[in-house]
Amino acid sequence: MMARLVVGTVAALMLVACGGSSKDTEAGAARPPTLQQLRIGILAPAASPCRSDAPEWPAAQRKYVQHLASRMEVPVSLCPMAEYSAIAAAIADGRIEMGPVDRAGLAPVTEKIRPILAVRPDTAPGRAIAVVVVPEAAPARTLADLAPAAGRVGARLILSRENSDILDGVRRILTSAGFPAASLAAASAQPDAETAAAALRSGAGDAAAVGGAEWYRYCRGTKKDETPCAGLREVWRGREPVAVAWSVSRNIAPESWARLVGIHIALFLEQPAIAAWLAPGGREITPVEATALEPAGQ
Questions:
Q1: pLDDT score at 67
Q2: 101 closest CA partner among 111, 176, 91
Q3: What is the mean pLDDT of the chain?
């Protein structure tokens, strides 16, 4: 029971952090009703009608439906579909309430649906955040300002190699955001955020890209009133996109949204057999922001 309460609280906080887009609600609009049924699209070799049970289903699949029906307090059924794009279209049209969607499937209906959950693979760290900083006096204001362009040489980039997983994540994020591969390949590396900042101040580079958590720790300092990041300015930050995310209508009731998030992020703790079936090879199911499927923006 305690685990359920904690997960519910975390889910509610994440909804505040991840929600709030003008696309999701209009000011003064009536709150949508909570779900009266839950039809979930699942990827399958061929489409077939929605069902709440079938004799050929594995035990974990049947238990998943039962578990959701009990926690959501509504009828639950699974709806096999052959493509992510079909699932996305069905959510947008109101034929189902939730299902996994990839970036290509989301693109045509991004105004109508949004991601809420994704799986963290067992073999990978959590989604990295990259921060790009420049000297305060530098003219750059965006990531695009640091890339080569007509009449302009690209910025000399400095990376922090404190953690190899995070360093790899920073490179992937910058690539997703369209930062030139040649500029990344030519980047120099420093042992940590502190030495990267020192190199930037010395003129050894024009910008530094560091993992978000590492940069926060460095900027926080170790003594009262210490300001290690003074003189440096953040011009960009981005989070690594996910490949697939469970998505829902942007008009879903907040109460239903919170329940869905809370139930699913608790599965690896409360229902490991269901989690193993639903997210094979996963370590956890996590809430995600509305832009989680989109490339890191500039």
A1: 98
A2: 91
A3: 89
Strand 157-160 to strand 76-81: parallel, antiparallel, or no bridges (unpaired)?
unpaired
Residue whose tokens read 């404190």? 162
Evaluated on CA atoms 64, 2, 253, 70, the torsion sign reads positive
**pLDDT tens digits for range 11-38:** 444 444 444 444 444 445 567 889 999 9
Q: Find out whether 252 and 97 touch, Cβ atoms under 8 Å.
A: yes
Q: Give the number of other CB atoms < 10 A from CB of residue 17.
A: 10
Q: How is residue 60 annotated by DSSP?
A: H
C-alpha to C-alpha distance for 41 and 86, rounded to whole angstroms:
9
Q: How far is CA 53 from CA 44, 226, 249, 266, 273, in A?
A: 16, 61, 24, 23, 17
171 contact partners, CB below 8 Å, separation of at least 6: 159, 184
Q: What is the CA radius of gyration of the chain?
A: 22
- The length of the chain, given as a count of residues: 298
Element at 261 (helix H, strand E): helix 254-265
Pairing of strands 98-102, 188-190: unpaired
Q: What pLDDT sits at residue 240?
A: 87
Q: What is the pLDDT of residue 166?
A: 87
